[in-house]
Amino acid sequence: MDDKQPRPAETRRITDVGTLKALGHPLRLKLYGRLRAAGTATASQLAAQVDEAVSLVSYHLRKLAEHGLIEEADAQSGDARERWWRAAQDNLSFRHEDFKDTPEGVAAHSAIIRRLIAHRHEQYETYLDQQTAWGERWREAADQSDFLARLNPAELTSLNAEIHALVRTYEERGKAAEAAGDTAGRENVAVHLASFPFRL
């Protein structure tokens, strides 16, 4: 399937420890993230982006594919030797409730969340290091906010659902615009959300 032919919006909920651990490897998380952003890529392209050997990247791509996290994509060039990959779904989710019954599950869930937080922190710090190069319009559009609300669990669930739905609306709007040829000025934009209770 060509990467210009979008997949239907899909979120896969990971509920088995094996798949969670496969995704939780630091290099595999990075490769999966690159594929989500790029649409499609080869092992050679990804290896250059993450500064690793092509053979190592190919190995980890195969591991992601074994767990249905990525899949082969149609060739984007005339080189039949190249194997193209893409994410097998638009989004992934993994909930503590699905892993709380075993120490291994709890540890795997905690580890991948911590790695994701570290990756997001690194991603934002990279933007901060490069923000001058982005120009005034992008700097004014970028945001880092912190909110404090007094909610119960049902209200927090509802808030998260509304925020997710709003972001998805913009995701689909961007895809439709690009499909219609409106690509000028468009960049990948990371939207990170963390909502959790705390006590003083």
From TrEMBL:
> Which SMART domains does the record cross-reference, listed alphabetically?
HTH_ARSR
Record key words, sorted: DNA-binding, Transcription, Transcription regulation
Could you tell me which residue ranges the HTH arsR-type domain spans?
18-97
Tell me one GO molecular function of this protein: DNA-binding transcription factor activity
Show the InterPro entries listed in the entry: ArsR-like_HTH, HTH_ArsR_DNA-bd_dom, HTH_MetalResp_TranReg, WH-like_DNA-bd_sf, WH_DNA-bd_sf
Question: Which SUPFAM superfamilies does the record associate with it?
Answer: Winged helix' DNA-binding domain
User: Gene3D superfamilies in the record, alphabetically?
Assistant: Winged helix-like DNA-binding domain superfamily/Winged helix DNA-binding domain
The record's listing under CDD domains reads:
HTH_ARSR
Name of the protein described by the UniProt record: ArsR family transcriptional regulator
